[in-house]
C-alpha cells in the first residue's frame, strides 16, 4: 500500500468505517427494521389500516419472523460478516437473494398457516423491504463519500487527472477513491471517445478530450496526469509526455498488463513516466517457454555471470530447469550476488560458482572438462569505451583473446550452442570497444564454419540499468548535486531493458543459425540530453548540464548495421539477422602482436591502429561540430 503522506492522519475515514464488522452488525438491524417498515407501510397504503386485531397481530408476528430470518440467513450468507464491500455488486446480489428467499418462505408459511393473513403483505413486503435496504445503503454510502472526499482533501492528497475512462481508468480511479492512504485524488478524467463525454463515475467525471487536457488541468489545479491506458504505444506516451513537460506537469503511467500481479493492479505499480518508457518502441514480448527446450535438462555455462547481463541470463535460464547452471566470473563479489539472487544463499561453496578469468586458458579448459557444458552464453567482456581507449591492450586481451579462449574450449569439448554477446558499437566500429567486439563476432562466425555446433552472436545497444550505464552515471551525478555531463547536445543512443536483452540472447540460441549476428529492431534512438533533463526534473533539484565533448572513438549516433552488412528477417518480427565475414584467429591477432603465432596474453604489446589488416575503416565517422567542449546547459533549456 502506498505510504501515508507526512502529516496525514491515520484515523480511518467514514468510507472505510463501512467495512468494519460492527457496522455490518448495525446494518443487519437496519435491514430487520426494513421488514417492519415494509409490512406496516403496505397495510397503510393497501388496507388503510382497516385490519382486525387478529390480522394486526399476524402482521406483527410475520415481521418478527421475517426480520429474524433475514438476520440469520444474511449472517450465514456473509452479508453481515463483512465478506463483501457494502454496496458492491456481490453484496447487493447476495442481499437480494437472501431477502427474496426469506419473503418466499415466511410468506408461504403465513399464507397457508394463517387464514386471515393479508396476502398483499405476504407478496409485496419482500420487494418493498429490499428497496428500503438498498436505499439505506445508498444514503449511507453517499454521506460517507462526501465526508471521505473532504478527508482526503484535508490530508493534502495530490490532485490528478486520469487519461482514459476505460476499464483500467475505472480500476485506478476506484483504487485511489477507496484507499485512505492513497496520495492521489482524482478530480476528473480525459478521454477521446465522444461517447464518454461528461460520463460520471463514483470518483469523478469525464471533463474533456486530449485537446482540453492542459486547460482543464490548470483550471482544476492539477500538476500530474496519470495515463490509465496500459496498452498505450511508446510514441503516444512520448508525445503526451512532451505536451505535459512543456506545460510544467508530470505524467504517471501504469505498468504493462503482463506485469499486473494476478491480473490486478496495485497502487505501488503506478510510477512516474521515466527513461525506461522512452525506448521508442513497445516492449518485445517473447514466449521463452516455447523455445527453452535447448537449455532444459542441459548443462549451461555463462561467462561474465556476475555482470548485469550475465546475471539476468542466469536467472532466466534457471527457471527453465537446466541440469546444471555454471556461473563463471573473475569477480567473487559478483558471484556471491548472483548466487544469492538465484538460490537465496551466497555461501559460494558449490562447484557451479566458478572463479576464473577467461584470459587464463588452462584454467578455462579445466572448467570445461569438469562440467562438459552443452550451451555457453559468453557475456564476459570489458565494455567501458573511454577506459579501453586508454588501455587498448586490455580490451584486446579480454574481448578478443579471451573470447577466442572460450571458443576454443567450446569446440574442444563439443558445445552444442554458443551465443556470443556483442554490441551495436561493433557496427562500423570507431573505438577499441567496437573493434574488439567486432573481432569477437568474426571469430564466432569462423568457428561456426569450421566446427560442429551452433555458434552465433547477438548485437544490441545500451542497456538501461546495467552497471556503469548512462542511467547509473546520471543518478550518481544528481545524488552528488550535479552537474550532469553529456558529451554532445545531439548525441543519441539505442536503449533496451535488461530483461529484453537477456530474452533476446536466450531466444538467439534457439532460433539463430550458425554464423549469424542477430540484431534487435530497437526503434528510434533516444536523445541523451532529453534523458538527462527528465532525470533532473524528476529529482526536483536545481542541477545544470555540462557538455564535455565527444571522446576519442565515440560516435554521435550509433548504428545497428555496418554499411557493408545486408540484414534479413529472422523468425521474430523485431529481430533481423546479418552475417559478418569470418576470420581465422591468426588473421585477427596478427596486427596486434609482435609475431604471427597464437600469443599468450602477456605477449600482446601493440596498440591497435585505425587501418589494420582486419579491414576496419573509420569512413563512416566524420568530424562532428556543434557544442563547445565545457559549455554548460542550464536545466530546462533546449
From TrEMBL:
Residues 592-638 are annotated as: Disordered. Residues 300-576 form the Polysaccharide biosynthesis protein CapD-like domain. The chain crosses the membrane at residues 21-47, 59-80, 92-114, 120-140. It comes from the Bacteria. Keywords: Membrane, Transmembrane, Transmembrane helix. Gene3D superfamilies: NAD(P)-binding Rossmann-like Domain. Belongs to the polysaccharide synthase family. This is Polysaccharide biosynthesis protein. It comes from Tessaracoccus antarcticus.
Amino acid at each position: 500500500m502506498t505510504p501515508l503522506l507526512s502529516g496525514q492522519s491515520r484515523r480511518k475515514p467514514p468510507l472505510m468505517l463501512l467495512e468494519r464488522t460492527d457496522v455490518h452488525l448495525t446494518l443487519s438491524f437496519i435491514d430487520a427494521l426494513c421488514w417492519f417498515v415494509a409490512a406496516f407501510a403496505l397495510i397503510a397504503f393497501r388496507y388503510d389500516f382497516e385490519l382486525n386485531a387478529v390480522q394486526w397481530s399476524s402482521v406483527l408476528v410475520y415481521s418478527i419472523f421475517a426480520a429474524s430470518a433475514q438476520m440469520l440467513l444474511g449472517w450465514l450468507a456473509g452479508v453481515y460478516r463483512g465478506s463483501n464491500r457494502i454496496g458492491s455488486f456481490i453484496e447487493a446480489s447476495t442481499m437480494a437473494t437472501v431477502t427474496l428467499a426469506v419473503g418466499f418462505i415466511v410468506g408461504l408459511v403465513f399464507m397457508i398457516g394463517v387464514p386471515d393473513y393479508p396476502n398483499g403483505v405476504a407478496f409485496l413486503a419482500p420487494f418493498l423491504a429490499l428497496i428500503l435496504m438498498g436505499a439505506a445503503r445508498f444514503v449511507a454510502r453517499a454521506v460517507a463519500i462526501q465526508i471521505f472526499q473532504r478527508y482526503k482533501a484535508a490530508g493534502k492528497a495530490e490532485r490528478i487527472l486520469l487519461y482514459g475512462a476505460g476499464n483500467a481508468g475505472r480500476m485506478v480511479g476506484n483504487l485511489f477513491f477507496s484507499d485512505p492512504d492513497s496520495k492521489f485524488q482524482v478530480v476528473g478524467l480525459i478521454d477521446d471517445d465522444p461517447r464518454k463525454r461528461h460520463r460520471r463515475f463514483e470518483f469523478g467525471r469525464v471533463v474533456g478530450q486530449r485537446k482540453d487536457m492542459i486547460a482543464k488541468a490548470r483550471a482544476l489545479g492539477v500538476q500530474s496526469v496519470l495515463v490509465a491506458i496500459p496498452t498505450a504505444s511508446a510514441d503516444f506516451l512520448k508525445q503526451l509526455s512532451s505536451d505535459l513537460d512543456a506545460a510544467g506537469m508530470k505524467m504517471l503511467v501504469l505498468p504493462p498488463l503482463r506485469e499486473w500481479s494476478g491480473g490486478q493492479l496495485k497502487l505501488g505499480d503506478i510510477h512516474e513516466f521515466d527513461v525506461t518508457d522512452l525506448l521508442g518502441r513497445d516492449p518485445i514480448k517473447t514466449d521463452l517457454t516455447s523455445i527453452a527446450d535447448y537449455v532444459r535438462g542441459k548443462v549451461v555455462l555463462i561467462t561474465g555471470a556476475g555482470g548485469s547481463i550475465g546475471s539476468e541470463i542466469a536467472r532466466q535460464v534457471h527457471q527453465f530447469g537446466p541440469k546444471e547452471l555454471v556461473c563463471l566470473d573473475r569477480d567473487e563479489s559478483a558471484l556471491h550476488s548472483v548466487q544469492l539472487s538465484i538460490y537465496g544463499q551466497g555461501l559460494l561453496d558449490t562447484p557451479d560458482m566458478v572463479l576464473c578469468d577467461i584470459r587464463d586458458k588452462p584454467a578455462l579448459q579445466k572448467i570445461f572438462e569438469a562440467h562438459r557444458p552443452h550451451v555457453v552464453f559468453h557475456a564476459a567482456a570489458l565494455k567501458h569505451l573511454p577506459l579501453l581507449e586508454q588501455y587498448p591492450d586490455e580490451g584486446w586481451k579480454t574481448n578478443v583473446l579471451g573470447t577466442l579462449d572460450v571458443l576454443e574450449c567450446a569446440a574442444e569439448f563439443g558445445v552444442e550452442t554458443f551465443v556470443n554477446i556483442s554490441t551495436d558499437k561493433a557496427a562500423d566500429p570507431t573505438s577499441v570497444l567496437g573493434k574488439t567486439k567486432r573481432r569477437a563476432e568474426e571469430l564466432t562466425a569462423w568457428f561456426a564454419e569450421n566446427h560442429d555446433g551452433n555458434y552465433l552472436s547477438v548485437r544490441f545497444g545500451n542497456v538501461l540499468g546495467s552497471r556503469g550505464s548512462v542511467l547509473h552515471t546520471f543518478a550518481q551525478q544528481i545524488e552528488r548535486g550535479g552537474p550532469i555531463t553529456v558529451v554532445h547536445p545531439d548525441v543519441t543512443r539505442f536503449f533496451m531493458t535488461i530483461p529484453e536483452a537477456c530474452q533476446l540472447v536466450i531466444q538467439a540460441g534457439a532460433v539463430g543459425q550458425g554464423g549469424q549476428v542477430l540484431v534487435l529492431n530497437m526503434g528510434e534512438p533516444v536523445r541523451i540530453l532529453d534523458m538527462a533533463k527528465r532525470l533532473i526534473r524528476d529529482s526536483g533539484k536545481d542541477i545544470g548540464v555540462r557538455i564535455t565533448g565527444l571522446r576519442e572513438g565515440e560516435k554521435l549516433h550509433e548504428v545497428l548495421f555496418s554499411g557493408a552488412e545486408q540484414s534479413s528477417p529472422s523468425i521474430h518480427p523485431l529481430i533481423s539477422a546479418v552475417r559478418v565475414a569470418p576470420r581465422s584467429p591468426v588473421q585477427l591477432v596478427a596486427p596486434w602482436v609482435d609475431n604471427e603465432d597464437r600469443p599468450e596474453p602477456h605477449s600482446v604489446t601493440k596498440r591497435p591502429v585505425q587501418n589494420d589488416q582486419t579491414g576496419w575503416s573509420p569512413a563512416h565517422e566524420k568530424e562532428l561540430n556543434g557544442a563547445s567542449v565545457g559549455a554548460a546547459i542550464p536545466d530546462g533549456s533546449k
